[in-house]
Amino acid sequence: MDNELNGSELGTKEFWESSYNREIRNYKSHGDVGEIWFDESAQWRTIDWLLGKEKIDKEASRVLDLGCGNGMFLVGLANEGFNGDLTGVDYSPKAVELAQNIAQDKKLSITYKVADLTQPQDELGHFDVVHDKGTYDAVSLCPDNAKEKRALYLATVEKLLRTADSLFVITSCNWTEDELEKSFAEKFVKYYTIPTPTFKFGGKVGNVVTSVVFKRKKE
């Protein structure tokens, strides 16, 4: 990718540990689950597409949420009747702690684990749906070797998909659909674009966020 994002604290583990430590305190004090990245509408567009248009198997599919944060994406799937295997991972132990607390209080069977997605994660197994809402963005904002870490992240994602028909669903606010396609071209092919709200500026139409579904590139 020719363009690189400027490094930011949003790309550091320390920032997220501090943020989720604060959100754990707020949750325990007030029951506030905390911020939902890109707001709830982005989350529900993906859930509606998976369960509605794509009709993934609610009973048998395995879903992995990358950079799960407070875990509300998986909570949303569970609340919509998804009974398959739900797993969320995050490199912030505090995020995982918050997600576990929320799922436990809601009496939902969701597994959460600490995992650095720029490292191989063979022990996680393989999944029918791998979901990313903002995690690739955060990796891209890492102040140290962001380009290399993005490549390592994508190598990990590729191995987590069960088959060539498994879905990699990504929502980004930093990269356009064209940029994602170009960056992923070595390992993935675009399968579907989930419509997102558009805006018009200077005669051009753009999107605040981009949601794209990829499949693993066939040999």
What would you note in describing this structure?
The strands form two sheets. The protein has a seven-stranded mixed β-sheet with strand order 3-2-1-4-5-9-6, sandwiched between helices. It has a two-stranded antiparallel ribbon with strand order 7-8. The radius of gyration is 17 Å and the shape is globular. α1 packs parallel to α4. α4 (93-105) links the parallel β2 and β3. The protein has seven helices and nine strands. The protein has one domain (9-216): Vaccinia Virus protein VP39 (Rossmann fold), CATH 3.40.50. The chain is an alpha/beta fold. InterPro entries: Efm4/METTL10 (IPR026635), Methyltranfer_dom (IPR025714), SAM-dependent_MTases_sf (IPR029063). It is found in: Cytoplasm. This is Protein-lysine N-methyltransferase Dere_GG24471.
Question: How does the SSE layout of this entry go?
Answer:
Blueprint: H1 13-30, H2 39-53, E1 62-66, H3 72-79, E2 85-90, H4 93-105, E3 111-114, E4 129-133, H5 135-140, H6 146-160, E5 167-172, H7 177-184, E6 188-194, E7 198-201, E8 204-207, E9 210-216
Parallel strand pairs: 1-2, 1-4, 2-3, 4-5
Antiparallel strand pairs: 5-9, 6-9, 7-8
Helix pairs in contact: 1-4
